[in-house]
Amino acid sequence: MRPPRPRHGTSVLHVPAAPAAAALLLALVTSGAMPWSPPVEAASPRYPSFTRPLIIPKVRSGSAVTLRAKLADVQILPGRKTRMWTYDGTFPGPTIRQRTGRTTTVTLVNDLPAAAGSLTLHNHGNHSASASDGQPDAYLAEPGGGSTAYTYTGTEDGGNERGAFQWYHDHRMDVTGRNVWMGLAGMYIIDDPADPQTLPKGAFDVPLMVVDRSFDAGNQLRYAFDRDGVTGDVTLVNGVPQPYLAVADRRYRLRILNASNARSYTFALSDGMSFLQIGTDSGLLPAPVRRTRITLAPAERAEVVVDFAGKLGKRVVLRDLAADGPQRSVLQFRVTRHVRDDSSVPATLRPLPVLDDAPAAERTFSFGQARLTGRWTINDRGFDPMRVDASPRLGTTELWTFVNDSGAPHVVHVHGTDQLLVSRDGRPPAPYEAMKESWPLGIGETITVKLKLTDNLGTFMLHCHILEHEDAAMMAQYEVVP
Ligand SMILES: [Cu+2]
Questions:
Q1: How does residue 49 score in pLDDT terms, banded at 50, 70 and 90?
Q2: What global pTM score does this model have?
């Protein structure tokens, strides 16, 4: 049964930058409980690019995983360590990796200082029961060592969940942006025997979490809530500023995640190289797609194969064409050794699921901004945990249309199930966005997706994944009903 939902304060405006919140923040900072520094007039520390190797987060497999949210001092920049809110002491947290069809229980233990408040864990992209989906104000891990277990069955609609590159992160109401910025994020990989097994694997299958952060002169994270979105001036890959990776002259599978709060990237490779995109948020594409640049908004993923054959001795840079200055460089590949490549990329990868039932309902969600208050809205309303915004029926297929009526881009993320794109601005989908669950929605754009709600009754979120938009109420919930 679902526990009663506490009203969050007395205001329906879930805007954390209220005076009380600011006073609390100041109290936390002065008590030393919160590793946050007031803004100081100092440039972020500079460091030479490509001086530290990429770190691959440690992997956790098995049916029971415990994630302990705790303070840790992490070596991010040269010199003084950065005090972060971490899962198990590292940033990113451990990569959880499990074969599809197997149940994994992730127990979140909250050992952060009480000032951080309650936490909730969202497995982004997973098909979960409502209670395990990272509800923003229920099924929480309370401060002082409280814990909550989230169960992921690895099944969907009578079969195995599709293999995918997912991620997990905090999803607490009003403060998701702060909590993720402070370090509460990690990667989650579902391996699927039904996917082609000739793709690069093992050491040649590399997950890359890309984020931006800002630091003060003492190397501590700076976060000042801004409902338009918080961006940073240092690019980190797996927690390392602009690292390098020594590679062999062969194919690599790169799983690229944009885990930034608000920044979008347009990735490209130097030296005339291109990506062979094989997957999206929702697993493998029907067929690989050759691309020279790939734009990822917050929460989006792209899985690509990059072939360094013939590049021995060369250096290839993963760039962000959307950035200026030093942030244009993200990661350097150094092709340092020769090996025989036993991998291949089949011409066909994985068919899309077929959703050919007649849609039982059509709904429209309009992403806007209130004229008077500036508050972000969906269908003219800010998030209210006591209100259900849509009630689709279990086992039915629906068409959902997302419209951007505001003056800013958004990223629509629907929890609980993948969606097939029907059209973007009336045009058929590009091959690389046939199926996803996080959709960039430019100013004035309209997209229509098809989805089927299976297995799980209860409430699920639908929100903008620019985390400060989400925290400033651009979230709705749907309830799957019998
Ligand atoms: Cu938004």
A1: confident
A2: 0.91
Q: How far is the CA of 65 from the centre of ligand 1 (A)?
A: 32
CA of 411 to the centre of ligand 1 (A): 6
Residues 6+ apart with CB under 8 A from 94: 57, 58, 59, 60, 65, 67, 87, 88, 186
Q: How far apart are CA 253 and CA 282, in angstroms?
A: 16
Convert the pLDDT of each residue in 7-23 to its tens digit.
333 233 333 333 334 33
Residue 479 burial (CB count, 10 A): 15
Beta carbons of 291 and 281 less than 8 angstroms apart: no
The domain segmentation of the chain, as residue ranges, is: 19-191
Tell me the CA–centroid distance for residue 180 and ligand 1, in Å: 16
Q: Look-up: residue for tokens 């972020």?
A: 44
CA 382–ligand 1 middle distance (angstroms): 12
Ligand 1 mean position, distance from CA 151 (Å): 29
144-200 tens-digit pLDDT: 999 999 999 999 999 999 999 999 999 999 999 999 999 999 999 999 999 999 999
Sort 209 into a burial class: Cβ within 10 Å, 0-12 / 13-18 / 19+: buried
What is the CATH code for 19-191? 2.60.40.420
Q: Ligand 1: distance of its center to the CA of 446 in Å?
A: 14
Question: Which of 161, 167, 147 is closest to 64 using CA atoms?
Answer: 147
